[in-house]
Amino acid sequence: MTRGVWAAPGRVNIIGEHTDYNGGYALPIALPQVVRCAAATETDGRVRVTSRQHPGERIDVAVAELGRASVAGWARYPLGVVYEFQRRGHGIPGVTLELDGAVPIGAGLSSSAAVECAVALALRDLFDLPVRVPELIDIARTAENDYVGAPTGTLDQSAAMLCTAGHALFLDFGKGDHEQVAFDLAGAGLELLVVDTDTPHRLVDGEYARRRQQCEAAATALGVTTLREVADPRAVDTLVDPLLRRRARHVVTENARVLAVADALHTGADPRTIGPVLTVAHASLRDDFEVSTPQLDTAVTTALAAGALGARMVGGGFGGSMVALTERGAAEPIAEEVEKRFRACGFAAPKWFVALPSPGARRIS
């Protein structure tokens, strides 16, 4: 029996929401919070999965039955990864997976991708499979799309696998390219505040899929394969359907915002200059893509009023977290102002932390 422990991080996206499945751009960082997967080889043809976040639940499924397994909820993420390896011809004779996650669940910080990538890396290493990182990313994404039923792009899995400490990751989904971009917040005297609004989202509930369908319809109406091909926002004004026009405008302008932020970081500009871009991005997600919530809007407006340099919702939306760029030492008092405002509004108490650009998935023992 071979054993080991692997870890994959959550992520926070500096800029670039709902651009991945439109062939566009994004700029995430990995979080210090990770999902750990303690894994061991077995030879009995079964997959056994437990999670410290779901005590008392033990999943035990035959590898050969994974395609027909009726298991629901959290366990479909790791089981989907095992199934996808098997489906692609990478035999898994049996495995035990013990999960323990510190990435907040449902907070828009990619806890699901962290699970998928930790499991994918563990399976590759445990069974010495000839699978390179791009395929690991695709295996994890396919598991989420097809086995779980969430029609995401590859942003989250790419961030979990490819991010490095001290850097943001520039992703070009149209070309399949990526590049590390130095993002030294401490050196610039800055902090990146993440506020979890405690309004969990579920990307399998249908609204996410509808946004993707609307983007595809907008691309078809504009005569392009993906909205990434539309560089001039004025082209979006030719769309007759006002709903499709709003959806496309967000994607086209968001791609431009990613490129602007990446260029600023590349050229050594003061990172403070990206703050207003984050705020504009929130307005676009709120008004054109319509994926924000009262809690997220309140967190953003409160953070800005308390001195944040820029703030926006992060992740797929419909709940989750806000990210704010602040001066060093300002994250805590800004978070406290958000907490006070949430109490006044009768919202659930938010949770917060300061994010640091951290390493991607790796074996830790």
Automatic annotation (TrEMBL):
GO terms for biological process: galactose metabolic process. Keywords: ATP-binding, Carbohydrate metabolism, Galactose metabolism, Kinase, Magnesium, Metal-binding, Nucleotide-binding, Transferase. Its EC number is 2.7.1.6. Residues 77-162 form the GHMP kinase N-terminal domain. GO terms for molecular function: ATP binding; galactokinase activity; metal ion binding. GO terms for cellular component: cytosol. Residues 270-343 form the GHMP kinase C-terminal domain. Residues 4-40 form the Galactokinase N-terminal domain. Belongs to the GHMP kinase family. GalK subfamily. This is Galactokinase.
